[in-house]
Amino acid sequence: MSDQFTIEPAPGIHVVRAGGAVIAETSSALVLKEKGYEPVIYFPRADIGMAFLDSSETRTTCPHKGEASYYHIEAKSGRIEDAGWSYEDPLAGAEAIRGHIAFAHERVAVERV
Q1: Which of 14, 77, 84, 90 could cysteine-pair with 19, CB 3.0–4.6 Å?
Q2: For 5-112, which CATH superfamily applies?
């Protein structure tokens, strides 16, 4: 683990709603708490309707987690640009989020139900 963030199981069931559809639902979410940021819920890929996601060209780099790859969501109401991201090859200390995708709560609804 890093001294910049913690990763732990997120209690309960979490969902992602976009364009009127539930695109992810899991009881196996992780919550990443990073200094200076709101907590972020990471969903296992196995619990995401990956058919709704389309890879984006966008990439960002975090000095603590590594390079993030982004995804658009193809919703019934239209494309939601760069709505999710993942760390395909996270840095040491962030390995737990490999195979998970987080979603921008300002673009889609990320809720605990």
Answers
A1: 77
A2: Domain of unknown function (DUF427) (2.170.150.40)
